[in-house]
TrEMBL record:
Keywords: Hydrolase
Enzyme class (EC, first level): hydrolase
The keyword Cell cycle belongs to this UniProt entry's keyword annotation: no
SUPFAM superfamilies in UniProt: N-acetylmuramoyl-L-alanine amidase-like
Protein name: N-acetylmuramoyl-L-alanine amidase
Domain N-acetylmuramoyl-L-alanine amidase: 8-134
Source organism: Desulforamulus aquiferis
Top-level taxonomy: Bacteria, Bacillati, Bacillota, Clostridia, Eubacteriales
Length: 206
């Protein structure tokens, strides 16, 4: 699998300072659309070009949209801190193709997570008031990719508590409340560090 580079021309783009989310979208339209179609559509909207950073066609082809370093135009609330991926199709009516989901998984696991270890995977409906990416898109499965990847080690031992990353910070579910590990460490006077490669929080309590 690979990212197919495209030669889309953009007017002017702004550099994105932060990347802590990946937002998944559907086109809510024609399942045969390509990134070039979306680029033209967004230009027609008066935008600088395709608002998504990646596009996955119905046949699973991954295409590059807006350059990865640029602020996208795909989710009003998190454009400044996120990468947008759009899948061709309307998943309020039918499911994405199997190969589209395989491509999406590859893009997240084999590419994005290596480059941006702290990202959270979310759906557009998590960041704005919308049905996108549609009720028939398996959003939970993709959100779990990142939430399940974080590990917590306290004094050298793996601790088995539910963990998630919110706004770039790791939280643990303790007595039904999500608690920021850094705050917890501060309270306990413990040392805390993050290992990007293994997505592990190391805490050492003296
Ligand atoms: Zn969307």
């Amino acid at each position: 699998m690979k990212i197919n580079e495209t030669n889309l021309q953009f007017k002017n783009l702004e550099k994105r300072a932060k990347t802590d989310r990946v937002v998944i979208h559907h086109t809510a339209g024609n399942r045969n659309a390509t990134v070039a179609d979306i680029h033209q559509m967004h230009l027609n909207n008066g935008w600088v070009g395709c608002g998504y950073h990646f596009f996955i066609r119905h046949d699973g082809t991954i295409e590059r949209g807006r350059p990865e370093w640029a602020v996208g135009a795909h989710s009003l609330t998190v454009n400044a801190r996120s990468i947008g991926i759009c899948l061709a199709g309307d998943f309020t009516i039918y499911q994405p193709s199997e190969i589209q989901l395989v491509s999406l998984e590859w893009l997240i696991n084999s590419y994005l997570l290596h480059k941006y270890p702290l990202i959270n995977i979310v759906g557009h409906s998590d960041t704005d008031s919308t049905q996108c990416p549609g009720i028939l898109f398996p959003l939970d499965k993709f959100k779990n990719i990142t939430s399940q990847l974080v590990k917590l080690i306290v004094n050298g031992r793996l601790v088995n508590v539910p963990l998630r990353i919110m706004d770039g910070r790791t939280e643990a579910l303790l007595s039904d409340n999500w608690v920021q590990l850094r705050e917890l460490a501060n309270m306990l006077g413990a040392d805390i560090s993050w290992d990007e490669l293994t997505r592990t929080v190391n805490m050492s309590i003296k």
